[in-house]
Amino acid sequence: MLKCVILGALLVVAAFAQPLAAANLKLYTTDGEFQVVREYHVEGDRVKFYSIDRSDWEEVPVSIVDLKRTEAELSAKQEVLASQTKAVDEEVAAARAEKAEIAKIPQNSGVYRIENGELRTFPVADITVHTAKGRSILQVLTPIPILEGKATVEIAGEYSQNVVHDNRPEFYFQLDNQESFGIIKLSTQKGLRIAEHIAIIPISKETEETREPVKIFTKQLPGDNFFKIWPEEPLAAGEYGVIEYVEGKIDMRIWDFRIE
Questions:
Q1: N or C: which end of the chain has fewer CB within 10 A?
Q2: pTM of the model
Q3: Direct distance between the N- and C-terminal alpha carbons of the chain, in angstroms, rounded to an integer
């Protein structure tokens, strides 16, 4: 029976596209020793192999070769290489898919998603600032004037019309300027959702803003103030918002969404 096993020069396309030095293998003998070979062939009662040490073909009786151990190690090495190749292929495919998605994102400031290959643009919410003096609406990123006391930043309606059927949604975020941003959980009350609570400290006039942030991953993309963000953990069903804000100035924009 003719048995041939050849371990070729398998390339794994890594970060620097360098070939692995794993093309050589060990040809074990029954006494536990081994030869480092490039390849070997079992032909009848002989094993022919290419010796790395001597850079030449040699042969030995098959009876002194531990083929079982040799083939087991070769198989394990091939599995590792196959796994590495698969991982690299998946990374390359993911990078290409992300590049294709990024090409669809407008350069205008705002929040976007790609759903089923199509662009989805999220509208900025109408923000209502509720103080003891009443309510005022804010739609652009402008500091909110508030007197001493407490206030809440609210969005009308208990439920967002912007439904997302993904508990770890990925958002593309184009900012006008280099501001802070993130995802927050909105608390629901009758007829409205609260984004944050504000307290103005007497005398010092310092503000304390309390909101419920969601832990996120952030990836900066090519271009000015262009990011991809997504939750670290799956989000429970409920009301949320992507937020752009200036810390300590009660200065924000919100793009609300609902997880279902």
A1: N
A2: 0.63
A3: 63
